[in-house]
Amino acid sequence: MPKKLKLEGLDCASCAYEIEEALKKEGFEFALVNFTTSELVIEGDVEKAKRIVRNVEPGVKVIEEDEHEHEHREKVLYFIIPSIILFAIGIVLRYYYGIDNAFVMGIFTVSYLLVGWKVLKSAVLNSFHGNVFDENFLIVIATLGAFAIHEYPEAVGVMLFYVVGEFFQDMAVNKSRRSIKALLALKAEYANLVTGDKIVRVTPEELKVGDIILIKPGERVPVDGMVIEGSSNADTSALTGESIPRTVKEGEEILSGMLNLTGVLKVKVTKELRESTISRILELVENASAKKAKTEKFITKFAHYYTPAVVGLAALVATVPPLTTGDPFSTWIYRALVLLVISCPCALVLSIPLGYFGGIGRAAREGILVKGSNYLDALHSAAVVAFDKTGTLTKGVFKVTKIETRNGFTEEEIIRFAALAEAHSNHPIAKAIKDAYDKKINETEVLEYEEIAGHGVRARIGDVEIMVGNDRLLHRFEIGHDTCHVKGTVAHVVINGKYAGYIIISDEIKEDAPAAIKELKHLGVEKVIMVTGDGEDVAEEIASHLGLDGFYAELLPEDKVRVIEELEKKKTPSEKIIFVGDGINDAPVLARADVGVAMGALGSDAAIETADVVIMDDKLSKLPKGIRIARKTRRIVWQNIIFALGVKLSFISLGILGEATMWEAVFADVGVALIAVFNAMRILR
Q1: Which is more confident, 202 or 644?
Q2: 388, 507, 582, 618: the active-site residue
Q3: Would you call 524 exposed, middle or buried from its count of C-beta atoms within 10 A (0-12, 13-18, 19+)?
Q4: Mean pLDDT of all residues in the chain?
């Protein structure tokens, strides 16, 4: 099983590449280093991997994911909790007992350093790297300014609020959402290589083009190849999303990742593992993740302009008036420091993350798991919604929806004989027919039974011969019939050589799908489409029934990614594409879309881990609800931004004129922050 490790101290992309290459040279079947997230995903000996990393990059520390997350949270709490206790003691001593001496100042200083040392360190290091005016610098300059004018509680309170806010923000966002463990499970562990009259078990990596392999029932197809002997049913749901097993026979292609269900297949290898379908899926997921647009935090962008302006203004206030008017420097330095306290953006620092956190929490209460505030933001701007079909728009459960009779036969006769003929079959279509018959089947009535690969079944019930299958079955036995093209999945029934009619088996559409589509359009989504691996006829019928704006059918995973990329070219930068799917085959396109939404109750682990949003109960009606929550969140966040900036600009003007006291400065900072926080909490209602 693959393992995810954290690489602490990885500071260059070339180092990441060197580590990855070294691991592969040392025999690791799978090794992937993501420089952006400082993560290493490997399949193999973890301790060996750690040694290799240390040899290549001695300064990089390797920590296992679970251990890293646990250690990180514990370390943060070890500093936050004592800081809060000391802060409370300092408040009591200063405001209740009226003590304001070096001892009390020491308590506040220790409380400040416990939570603020990392922010101080980041501000200094970022300044050395040229990123002077970020949010860390703004917090540091404002809190140190508060200390300079003896407002220690203010300084510690701002720093505590900031660090605690960051702590909860980190808990809300799962930084390891791009796990590909479930995808790797599709990779076959071995292959049966035919060498002369022997069969040798080898790893898929050892197979070469032209090799002959044997694939037994229940085994995963290791590499892409051509069937040269045998026929079988193959589960292709992992690759195409089709829930109906596909019949594969001599001369047809079979893809890696498929599961052989029934017969023994002899296959000629046409592609080595690194070029096979399953390897391409793995590569697509990682590349699609890298192509994701990264949403920069508003406060960071804002600080690039706001911080230097405020600091510069404070410097001017502290120096220019005394030099030009002869006033004492102490008066104007005091005003400048008040100005810094007023202009501390803690209302934004707190309310913006809290607003998004509230939106994420509200969505979670509704059964919608959003993995980050940037995806909540992206939901707000949904312009195109693309759905997978099976398991997403439909239930993934087959059901007889229609019986058409011919030549005087009744519906009861057709369904009874079809159910008896399919009595020994485990095929999903056979199960749907037997469920529709809804009576006990006496298998002793079936005197003869033959499965005709790629066509259907033939059985004898008493003195009646029954055939059930596809259109090819009718042509093979020259059965006269009036139609060859029926929309949907169809099973033709022949009784004693005479065409009796056909049964339509449909993957039942989810009850809330039509309402969800209608609601999305009501919300202003410009285009609602379907992207599926199913056939053209089935896709057209579903699209027409649901009133979709279009569909793309018969697609492999890479084709779905291509469709999303084509749609990407036609939209504006502010518009977002949402893809909704549930299968492992959907993982690449879930990663490539602006927002990938997975069905959580029935969806695959890979889809859930790769997606940005997970609908936990599989109800499509939750998607428009999620968009509504996203829009409410965005609206409240911008209310806070405008309110906080408006109040602060007003008080900055009063501070420069000397009309704002320290208490008013505290209100302009903490008071506005609290109002903004209370406003943000409205999202939860």
Answers
A1: 202
A2: 388
A3: exposed
A4: 79
